[in-house]
Amino acid sequence: MPAVMSLASRSAGPTKPPAERRGLGSYLALLFSLLSVLVTVVLLLVSERIASDQVRTSIGNNLAELADQTTGRLDRAMFERYREVSLMAQRLSSASLDEVRTEIDAMQRTYANYTWVGYVDPSGRVLASTAGVLAGEDVSARRWFTAAGQGQNVLDVHDAVLLAKLMPDPSGEPRRFVDIVFPIERSPQGAAPLLAVHLSWQWAQEIVRAIFSPLKQTRGVEPVIVGRDGTVLLGPQDVQGQRLVLPSLAAADHGTGFITERWPDGKEYVVGYSLDRGFRAYQGLGWRVLVRQDLGTAFAPVRQLQRHLVLWGLGVALLFSAVGLLAARVVTRPLNELAADARELEAGGTLGQLTAGPYREVSQLGGAMRSLLQAVQQKETALRDLNASLERRVEERTAALRETFEHVRESERRIQTILASSPEPFIAVDFNGRITDWNSRAEALFGWRRAEVEGRSIVEVLVPERYRVASENALRHVAASARPPLGGAPIERIVVDRHGREIEVELRVGIVDSGKLQLLCIFMTDISRRKEVDRLKTEFVSTVSHELRTPLTAVYGSLRLLSGGVAGQLPAQGRQLLEMSTRSCERLIRLINDVLDVERIASGRLELRTAPLDLRALVEHALHDTEAFAHELGVRVRLDDREAGEVQVVADGDRVTQVVVNLLSNAAKYSPRGDEVLVTLHVLDGRARVTVVDHGPGIPAEFRSRVFERFAQADASDRREKGGTGLGLNICRSIVEAHGGTIGFESEPGVRTAFWFELPAGDTQPLPG
Ligand code: ADP
Questions:
Q1: SS in 3 state form for 493-511?
Q2: Higher model confidence: residue 172 or residue 54?
Q3: CA separation for the pair 474, 485 (Å, rounded)
């Protein structure tokens, strides 16, 4: 059951996915995870970039703000001192020296950072001073003194060696001061004394400390106050007193801001900067306040933010992956259920098991599977039916074939038996002339065993050397046309046997051409003996004829003489006897002539003495010769010569006349008394045709094939009644064919019989007139 088996094997194919293959759920979960990781990473990168920038800017701005705040505080404090000294100078304009002393002492007490306050006369001598320091000394060489002369009230911070000696700092640090000097306007004329204050640098340190000490501990924020010339006035140990060249300093000249830069200690800092611009009347000293913070420390919040973002991102990615896994489960569960249903169905369940899914796609898939399975089941049933019917048909055909095969085998056996027991030699050859069959009679006749000649060429085995080329050609022609030679009529040939003895045979050739099988079937008859007998017979007849003709001619001559009255008038009875004898003698002579002709023709000794002649004249002549004979039979002979004039042929005149006379006398013989025999002469396609027409009994159908054979007569009584021999037409045919012509007849018994012959015609000239 091949069809069913193939169906079964197909349905038993792999129904479960191979174990190593991942399910749709895994793919979906993986996809979700990847997507969430991707989205998280992208979001992270973007937010990190934005947030970091913001945080960086805010940190920088904070530092800048700090710097600005510091300059502001310094300026304000400086302004306070500036204003206080200026007010004091005004107040002292009318004070006595003692009052001055009291005032300046009181002034120092109010603010500890006034390290030294002095009252200096215009020549530079110190008239009064706090704690009497430098009292009476000449300070005209001091820079602040000369600067005050030029209207400069505030002098930038500087080290004061002299005062440091007189008033050493308790901490041991070098003493540095900012000098504030105002003239005391005493009188409208003359030079004014000066009120000079040395403000301890401690002042600035205190302000800075107040601002930065809480910050520095936590965030490492360090203030650097840089003088107009770039020297660090106040700052961390590593830069204190150094002259700095930094981008931030340059930038500070243009306002407040922040920058990230590398400092001489090799570290990178975020630096906020600001320029001291003074406050109100106080012009400022052109200080620049830098607030630096180590880059690592400054941007620690940025890194922390990044860490947070990464952690959050990972968390979110994990969450999304979990959600994805869950979603994949939800999506694939109905599909798995459907697959389980299908497997159960395959194991023998019913179609109703294919459950409807929770969502449309699965329902549709289930529906599609249902209809698919229905279709498959229907197809399977149809296939089973088809298979059954096919098997039935195959069985029937097999039986029929077996029968046919048996039949063929039987036929073959029969044919083999027939061929083997055939009394005649049988040979089969293929279209190339190779022998395929050779029966026992052929073995006996030719002396070759079948096995010896099978596959060999028939021409090589049987045909004498001299005929081989012609035989090969004939064989090729037969094979090409697939028609037996001479329409299957018997053919006489000479063949040789194993010992080179020549044998005359008659062949009959049949053709088998079924496409696959192409054979020539040849039956042979050994006619050597028949030929020999024929020859002996002919020889005998010819000898007898010759021997008879001479005395008969003599007898005939004598009879003619007697009829002519050489022996005087005979009585009526005697004349009658004489006439009968003459006629018999004539008939005998005719017979003998015919026999001799036939013998001559058969032995190939018929000689033609051809010459150009006018066939019409010849026919007229023959007609004339036959007229008397016809007349005796009460028959007229007439030439219907309307259609042709002179017809030229190259022929033996006597022999052609013999043919015409024979046809005419036959027609006359078989015509009813009083009838007319008509002779016509035509020329058609280069052939001259003579036709002799009578209206006698004609040629019966069964005799037609033998009309031209020797001694052939339709009726045995003919010979007696009509005095024929049955040789005439045979001789006619030989003569006509020897001329390259043809002879034939058409006969409608009792109505019309026409015998005709054709000869190749030469020139044809129309009848004159
Ligand atoms: P025969 O000498 O007998 O005439 P032919 O060979 O001439 O011999 O003729 C052979 C036979 O053909 C005749 O015996 C006759 O039976 C038949 N035959 C020939 N010519 C005619 C004809 N015109 N009408 C009828 N039969 C004819």
A1: EEEECCCCCEEEEEEEEEE
A2: 54
A3: 8
